[in-house]
Amino acid sequence: AIQEVEQDYGIPVAAIAPLVVAAVAWIVYCLVDLARADVRFLPKWGWALIIILSVPLGGVAFLLLGKEPA
Fold first, then answer.
1. Which of 62, 55, 56, 57 is nearest to 40 (CA)?
2. Partner of 67 at 20 to 30 A CA spacing, among 10, 18, 46, 59?
3. DSSP strand E in the chain: where?
């Protein structure tokens, strides 16, 4: 018989949920800013991939390096 392997790391969902909400909010903020901004070094789709795949460093990189200076 196949037994289900269930791991319990002892971390309640209530502790993880705010981090997930904060990460999603950060991604949304950066993508909205990306849609409105003039960019440098990469096309917008490249920055979007970096923002989505590398949370939170991708957003920080975009905000510091990817936006054209005002």
1. 62
2. 18
3. none
